[in-house]
Amino acid sequence: MRPIYVCIGCATTYLPPENPTSGPAPSPAHCSRPECQTAAREAAKWSGLSEAKLGELARRAAGLEGEPRRPRTGRRISAGRRATSAPAGGRGKLH
Questions:
Q1: Residue 31: count of CB within 10 angstroms of its CB
Q2: How many CA atoms, within 13 angstroms, populate the side-chain half-sphere of residue 21?
Q3: For a designed S-S bond to 6, which of 12, 31, 53, 58 qualifies (C-beta 3.0 to 4.6 A apart)?
Q4: Is the pLDDT of residue 16 over 80?
């Protein structure tokens, strides 16, 4: 089964060629557009991650590798206090 990649620059999904005949090797982080290649190189430089890792994170964020992880809001821990409950998750006075 061929992997499906997600471009960091334009957020499109694409399949790499099965047998690349010429040109650069397909990247898991960007499509063939020059502005996307530049954006992926800059993202790799600023984040310190490899293009392969960025491609993996883009696939996970797009939901191609299972359910994307999203932050849980409403459960922040204050300094010296207990965690707050989720919205409408705790007991109210009317229970």
A1: 21
A2: 0
A3: 58
A4: no
